[in-house]
Design a protein that fits this description.
mainly alpha; hydrogen ion transport
Amino acid sequence: MNINFTLISQAMAFAIFIWFTVRFVWPPLMRAIENRQKTIAEGLAAGERGKRELELASQRSGDVVREAKQRASDIIAQAEKRAAEIVDEAKVAAREEGDRILVGAKAEVEQEVFRAKEVLRQQVAGLALAGAAKILRREVDEKAHAELLASLKAEL
């Protein structure tokens, strides 16, 4: 064996191996590496997009929460206002009812006073008649002296 032949055959085998590797092995490896780089780049871009979307969603949720709080405070204010109106309406209604009851009671008292005065007038007229009868020692006829009794009632 000649060392030159061995060296040349090894160099040719190495050259064939390099050619085979460059021709058939290297392109799929490069495609796999490029695909992996694309996947990583897309993942990073998606992560950035997700981060931006998360920030936007956080802002939107904050806006929604603020709006909901504002609406809630508006609703509470309206409810308090309506409650105050209802209380005022109830006070007015109660005052009107009290006034109506007071007017009715005053009218009833006036009627009772009038009735009591009438009863008192009749009793006084009866007493006056009895007193006059005792003074005159005779009985006074009510029919005959109706005019006298009417004027006596009017004076009382």
